[in-house]
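Hello,

Our lab assistant flagged a job as stuck in the queue for most of the afternoon. It eventually completed. Since we weren't sure the result was trustworthy after the delay, we are filing this so someone can double-check. Below is the sequence as submitted and the structure that was eventually returned. Let us know if re-running is recommended.
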Amino acid sequence: MAPSNRRTANITRNTNETKIQLSLSLDGGPLDLLPPTAEFRTQGSEDETTGEPPEVQVTKTHASQITASQHIWIWTGIGFLDHMLHAWAKHAGWSLRIRCRGDLAIDDHHTTEDTFLALGTAFTTALGPRTGLARFGYGYAPLDEALARAVLDISSRPFFVGDFGFKGPMMGNLNTQMIHHGLGSWAQNAGVTLHVDVLKGDNDHHRAESAFKALAVACRMACERVLGKEGEIVSTKGVL
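-- returned structure --
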């Protein structure tokens, strides 16, 4: 796809609780490095054990993958959240850069919530006018014994229903409740109707990862531009 036709967004979201920089391309391809700001130093430690974002974004982290077709580099300070966002971006065909400095001394709530809110804002900004799209998308994804389904409507009617069936309270340093809350926050700012159901699975990690991979497949399908429907609103109401 020609670079000029890529759907991209750059978002900065600063509150008293979190500082977030994010760049997104729904169509993959290269992304510029996130620019230095007062909240993110340009030089400093690259030690992942500090909980701080590495200052040099070409540093390979646990949630980075730079290829010819995608640039993915994610650091929220919550390792399991990074892992899920990496899987989502990879299988949706997105390029995504995120760095967040949050109040993790309190807990994971604000960092997770605000990261999903920022990603939702970036999604709807990059999408632009909701015309000529497939609009609906669905996906199934297995991970060993786990199987998940996601169904997405780019409806401009924010709504989220999720059933994950997690068995434990935590995955790494992420509270399992925050996956439901985070995806609900994303759907709100993305302006989509989203249903995610984990249909089976014994392992919570597998249940979560299969859910994000299924969501990725649904996003990729729903965001597809339909040849011959350029400029058309895919709605009987004539508006989305």
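-- support follow-up --
The delay was a queue issue, not a problem with the job. The result is valid. The longest strand covers residues 18-25. DSSP finds four helices and eleven strands in the chain.
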